[in-house]
C-alpha cells in the first residue's frame, strides 16, 4: 500500500461519524510506516507521516464544514509545522482567528477537536486569536519558537498572513533577544544531562548533540536570516556544502533511531532506555547478538552526536557574531598561526594543522595561555578537517607526538580546558588506539551513568580539581598537590578502565596496556611500576572498604601488604575517590567517604607500625573510651555506671564505634531501666554518624530480628549501609544500623524518622509474624540479570565472612536474614553495599557452635542462597 493510496482512502470517507473508518486509516498508516521502514529512507517516512496527517486533518475540516468559517485558519506549529512527524509524535495545532469566536464557532471547533481525540490522534491544540497568540508568544520563548515554523494547513490564508506580519513586526521578539533566549535555553537543557550525551540511556531528542541542537540552528536561522532551507546558509557562507550534507546525514541517523524507538515503544518515547536498546539495535540492522549489537549501535550514535555538537557550536558562534553584531574588542597575536579574539583561540591562516604534531602543539598552547577560554569556529573547522586528514595512523606512532604528549601530561594546567578539548573533539581517540576502543563504550548496569570514555574524562577532571585545591576533599587535595610527579596519577587515571570490553579482567589488561605505553614513552621503570600497579589495583581500595571488615586487623594487614608504601597508598586513595565520584553523580555519599577515610587512616598507621595493625587498633580503643567517658560524664553519667556498662561489651565494639556513638548508646540504654525479658529499645540519631542516620535496636534477642528490621526499612524505601550486630556479655542484642534514603540522601525529616522508629518497634512487638514487604522492583532493575555469587573467607576460628553478590531486589536482606536463622547461623555483622542494581554485601556469621562454618555448611548456604535469590 502506497502513501497516496492511504490518502485516497481518507478522501473516500463521507462523514466524521464514521469513526471506525478514520481509525482504520490511521492503523493502516502505522502498518505502512512499519513495512516501509526497512527499505525506505527515514526522511521520506517522517515527511510522509506529516503528509498523511495533513490530508486527514484537512478532510475532517471539510467534513465538519469549517471551511465555511471564512476567518478561521488551521495552522501546524512546532515540529509538525516543519512538515516532519515521527510515528507517535504530538501533532501540534493552532486554531487561529482574527477575533473572538462566537459560541457557534466554539462549538464547531470543539466538535473538530473531540473528533481528533476520538479517532486516536495525539494532538496538542490551542484556540487563540491573533492578538492572544502574539501576546503569549512575547512572554514565552517556547511559544515563540513553535510559531517560527508555523505552516498553514487549511482555512483562511489572510488570517495566517496577518499573524505572520505581527510575528515580524515591532514590539515582538527581535533577532537578538531570540538568539540570546535560545542560546540560554540550550545551555540549561545541556546542563540537565550533565553537559554530555555520553549517558547510558540518552535522550535522542533533548541530549546535547541530538535533534534539538539541530533544530536550534534552524530556528535561529529562520528568525534572523529568514531562510527556509539550509542551502541558503551554504550560499551565505555559514556552512560549507560538505558540512551541510554532514548535518543532514547526522539528522537522518538520529531520525532512524527515534523512528525505531517510537515503533518499538508504540508511543512517543525519545529516551533510548535499556528496555529498548536490544530491539532497536536489531531493527536498525546492528545484529541480534545482545550487548554486542547495542555496543555497535551506541558507538555509531555517539559519533553522530559529536559531529552535531561541533557543527552546532560552530554555527551558533557564527550566528552570534552576526545576530548580536559583535565586533572583536580584544585581539592579540600569539604566533604566526594563532591569535586570541575576545578569549577565543582563532586561526590566522587556513592551514594551521599540517601534521598531527600541530594539534598537540595547539593543546600545549592552550594550556600555556590562561587567557584562552574556548575555541573560535575557525579553529574548530580546521581541527575537524585535520582529524579526518590524519586518520590513517594513530598519532602515538610518531616520536615527536609522543614527546609532546608527555609534555602535556606534565603540564600543571593541561587538565583544565585543553583536556576537555582533547576529549570532546576526539584528539585522544586519534592519539591512542586503546582509547579509540573505549569511546562510546556502554556499561550495562545501573552503577555507571556514563560510557567508559566519559567516565574516565570525569575522573581525570576530579583529580585536576584536587590539584587546584578542592575544599570538599582536603585530604585528596593535599595528596595531589604534594605529588612529585602528578602525571603518573593522570596516566593511571586515563588507563584505569581502558581494558574494558576485551573479554578479560580489565584491570590486568589495562596494566599491560599502560606498561607498553610507558616503554613507548620512555617512562622509567620505577614510575612505570607505580602506574601499572595503580591501574591493576584501582578497584582494590573500594572493594576492601565496601565489602570487607576494615576493623579486622588481618584485613588491614593484608591491604597494607598489597599497598606496600605511603606513596602507593596516597596515589590509590586519590584515584579511588575520583573513580567513585565520576561513576555516577548519585552514588557518592558521606558513607563511602567515611569508609575510605577509615581504611586510609588505619592503613597509614599499619604502614607506620610495619604493617602490624593491632597496635593501631588498641590505640583506637583507648582513645575512643577516653573521649566517650568525657562526653558521658559531661552529661551527668558517673564513672561507676560507665565502667559497669562497658564491662558488658567486647573490645571490637570500641573499635567499630566512634566516641559520639558510644556516648549516645550508653546514655539511652542506661536511661532505659528497668530491663526485663521483653525489654526493647528502638531509637535513632541523625548526628552520631556523618555518613547517615543511626538506628539503634537494643533488647533481648528475638528470632529474625535483623530480617524483620531490614524488611521494614526496605519497604519504606530506606537503604541499610552498615549493620553491626553484637551481643553483650549478659545476653542482650545490640544492633546498630546506618540508614539512608533509597537515593543515598540523609534522612532529614523528623517526622520521617519517628515514623521509621514506630514501624520497627511495632514489627518487633509482633512475635512470630513475618513482615510483608510490598516494595516493587523498578523498571530498570527488571531489565538486568545479576546472577547470585557467594564467596567465603575463613581466616578466624570463630567466624566466616560470607560475601554475597546479587540483584538488589526488594526484600533481599530479609531473605538472607531469614535463611541464616533457618540454618541456625548467628549473624555478627553485615556490611551492605548497593552498587547500582547490584548488591555486594558482606555478612560475618558463625554456626550454632559459635565456630566458623564448616565446608559442608558453606556449600549448603551457597546452594540455598542461590535458590532463594535467583
From TrEMBL:
Quick one: a GO biological-process term for this protein?
A: regulation of nitrogen utilization
Q: Residue ranges of the HD domain? A: 452-572
Reaction catalysed by this chain? guanosine 3',5'-bis(diphosphate) + H2O = GDP + diphosphate + H(+); [protein-PII]-L-tyrosine + UTP = [protein-PII]-uridylyl-L-tyrosine + diphosphate; [protein-PII]-uridylyl-L-tyrosine + H2O = [protein-PII]-L-tyrosine + UMP + H(+)
Matches recorded under SMART domains: HDc
Activity regulation (record text): Uridylyltransferase (UTase) activity is inhibited by glutamine, while glutamine activates uridylyl-removing (UR) activity.
Q: What is known of its domains?
A: Has four distinct domains: an N-terminal nucleotidyltransferase (NT) domain responsible for UTase activity, a central HD domain that encodes UR activity, and two C-terminal ACT domains that seem to have a role in glutamine sensing.
Report the protein name in the record: Bifunctional uridylyltransferase/uridylyl-removing enzyme
In which organism is this protein found?
A: Paraglaciecola polaris LMG 21857
* Native organism taxonomy: Bacteria, Pseudomonadati, Pseudomonadota, Gammaproteobacteria, Alteromonadales
Q: Which gene encodes it?
A: glnD
Amino acid at each position: 500500500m502506497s502513501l497516496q493510496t492511504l490518502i485516497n482512502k481518507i478522501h473516500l470517507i463521507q462523514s466524521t461519524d464514521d469513526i471506525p473508518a478514520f481509525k482504520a486509516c490511521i492503523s493502516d498508516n502505522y502498518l505502512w510506516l512499519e513495512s516501509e521502514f526497512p527499505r525506505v529512507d527515514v526522511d521520506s517516512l517522517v515527511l510522509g507521516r506529516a503528509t498523511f496527517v495533513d490530508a486527514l486533518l484537512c478532510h475532517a475540516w471539510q467534513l465538519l464544514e469549517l471551511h465555511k468559517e471564512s476567518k478561521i485558519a488551521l495552522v501546524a506549529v512546532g515540529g509538525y509545522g516543519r512538515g516532519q512527524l515521527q510515528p507517535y509524535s504530538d501533532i501540534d495545532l493552532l486554531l487561529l482567528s482574527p477575533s473572538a469566536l462566537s459560541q457557534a464557532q466554539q462549538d464547531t471547533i470543539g466538535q473538530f477537536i473531540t473528533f481528533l481525540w476520538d479517532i486516536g490522534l495525539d494532538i496538542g491544540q490551542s484556540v487563540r486569536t491573533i492578538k492572544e497568540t502574539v501576546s503569549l508568544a512575547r512572554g514565552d520563548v517556547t511559544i515563540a519558537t513553535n510559531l517560527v515554523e508555523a505552516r498553514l494547513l487549511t482555512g483562511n490564508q489572510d488570517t495566517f498572513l496577518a499573524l505572520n506580519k505581527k510575528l515580524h513586526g515591532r514590539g515582538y521578539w527581535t533577532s537578538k533577544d531570540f538568539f540570546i533566549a535560545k542560546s540560554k535555553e540550550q545551555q540549561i537543557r545541556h546542563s540537565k544531562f550533565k553537559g554530555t550525551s555520553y549517558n547510558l540511556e540518552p535522550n535522542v531528542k533533548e541530549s546535547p548533540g541530538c535533534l534539538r541542537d539541530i533544530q536550534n540552528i534552524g530556528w535561529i536561522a529562520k528568525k534572523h536570516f529568514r531562510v527556509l532551507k539550509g542551502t541558503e546558509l551554504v550560499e551565505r557562507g555559514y556552512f560549507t556544502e560538505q558540512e551541510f550534507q554532514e548535518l543532514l546525514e547526522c539528522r537522518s541517523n538520529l531520525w532512524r533511531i527515534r523512528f525505531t524507538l517510537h515503533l518499538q515503544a508504540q508511543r512517543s518515547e525519545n529516551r533510548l532506555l535499556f528496555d529498548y536498546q536490544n530491539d532497536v539495535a536489531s531493527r536498525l540492522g546492528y545484529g541480534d547478538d545482545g550487548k554486542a549489537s547495542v555496543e555497535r549501535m551506541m558507538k555509531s550514535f555517539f559519533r553522530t552526536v559529536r559531529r552535531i555538537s561541533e557543527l552546532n557550536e560552530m554555527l551558533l558562534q557564527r550566528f552570534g557574531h552576526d545576530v548580536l553584531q559583535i565586533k572583536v574588542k580584544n585581539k592579540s597575536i600569539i604566533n604566526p598561526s594563532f591569535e586570541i579574539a575576545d578569549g577565543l583561540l582563532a586561526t590566522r591562516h587556513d592551514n594551521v594543522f599540517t601534521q598531527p604534531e600541530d594539534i598537540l602543539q595547539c593543546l600545549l598552547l592552550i594550556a600555556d595561555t590562561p587567557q584562552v577560554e574556548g575555541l573560535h569556529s575557525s579553529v574548530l573547522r580546521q581541527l575537524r578537517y585535520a582529524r579526518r586528514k590524519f586518520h590513517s595512523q594513530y598519532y602515538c606512532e610518531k616520536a615527536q607526538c609522543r614527546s609532546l604528549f608527555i609534555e602535556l601530561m606534565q603540564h600543571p594546567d593541561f587538565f583544565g580546558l585543553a583536556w576537555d578539548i582533547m576529549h570532546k573533539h576526539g584528539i585522544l581517540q586519534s592519539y591512542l588506539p586503546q582509547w579509540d576502543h573505549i569511546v562510546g563504550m556502554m556499561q550495562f548496569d545501573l552503577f555507571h551513568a556514563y560510557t567508559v570514555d566519559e567516565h574516565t574524562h570525569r575522573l581525570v577532571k576530579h583529580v585536576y580539581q584536587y590539584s587546584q585545591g578542592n575544599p570538599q576533599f582536603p585530604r585528596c587535595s593535599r595528596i595531589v598537590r604534594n605529588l612529585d610527579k602528578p602525571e603518573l596519577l593522570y596516566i593511571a587515571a586515563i588507563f584505569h578502565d581502558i581494558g574494558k570490553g576485551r573479554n578479560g579482567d580489565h584491570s590486568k589488561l589495562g596494566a599491560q596496556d599502560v606498561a607498553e605505553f610507558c616503554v613507548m614513552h620512555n617512562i622509567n621503570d620505577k614510575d612505570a611500576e607505580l602506574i601499572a600497579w595503580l591501574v591493576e589495583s584501582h578497584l582494590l581500595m573500594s572493594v576492601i572498604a565496601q565489602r570487607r571488615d576494615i576493623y579486622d586487623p588481618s584485613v588491614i594487614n593484608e591491604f597494607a601488604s598489597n599497598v606496600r608504601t605511603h606513596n602507593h597508598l596516597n596515589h590509590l586513595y586519590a584515584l579511588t575517590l575520583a573513580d567513585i565520584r565520576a561513576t555516577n553523580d548519585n552514588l557518592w555519599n558521606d558513607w563511602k567517604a567515611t569508609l575510605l577515610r577509615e581504611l586510609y587512616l588505619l592503613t597509614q598507621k599499619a604502614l607506620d607500625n610495619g604493617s602490624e595493625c593491632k597496635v593501631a587498633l588498641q590505640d583506637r580503643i583507648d582513645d575512643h573510651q577516653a573521649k566517650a567517658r568525657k562526653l558521658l560524664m559531661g552529661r551527668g553519667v558517673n564513672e561507676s555506671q560507665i565502667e559497669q556498662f562497658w564491662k558488658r561489651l567486647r573490645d571490637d565494639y570500641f573499635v567499630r564505634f566512634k566516641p559520639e556513638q558510644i556516648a549516645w548508646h550508653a546514655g539511652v540504654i542506661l536511661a532505659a531501666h528497668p530491663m526485663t525479658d521483653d525489654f526493647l529499645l528502638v531509637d535513632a540519631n541523625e548526628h552520631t554518624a556523618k555518613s547517615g542516620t543511626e538506628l539503634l535496636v537494643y533488647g533481648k534477642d528475638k528470632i529474625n530480628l535483623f530480617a524483620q528490621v531490614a524488611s521494614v526499612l526496605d519497604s519504606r524505601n530506606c537503604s541499610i549501609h552498615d549493620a553491626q550486630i553484637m551481643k553483650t556479655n549478659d545476653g542482650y542484642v545490640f544492633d546498630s544500623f546506618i540508614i539512608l534514603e533509597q537515593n543515598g540522601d540523609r534522612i532529614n525529616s523528623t517526622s520521617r524518622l519517628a515514623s521509621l522508629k514506630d514501624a520497627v518497634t511495632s514489627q518487633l512487638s509482633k512475635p512470630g509474624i513475618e513482615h510483608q514487604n510490598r516494595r516493587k522492583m523498578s523498571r530498570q532493575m527488571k531489565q538486568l540479570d545479576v546472577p547470585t555469587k557467594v564467596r567465603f573467607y575463613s581466616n578466624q576460628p570463630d567466624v566466616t565472612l560470607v560475601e554475597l553478590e546479587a540483584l538488589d531486589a526488594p526484600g533481599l536482606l530479609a531473605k538472607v536474614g531469614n535463611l541464616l536463622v533457618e540454618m541456625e547461623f548467628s549473624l555478627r555483622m553485615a556490611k551492605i553495599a548497593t552498587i547500582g542494581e547490584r548488591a555486594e554485601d558482606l555478612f560475618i556469621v558463625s554456626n550454632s557452635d559459635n565456630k566458623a562454618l564448616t565446608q559442608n555448611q558453606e556449600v549448603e548456604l551457597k546452594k540455598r542462597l542461590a535458590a532463594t535469590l535467583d
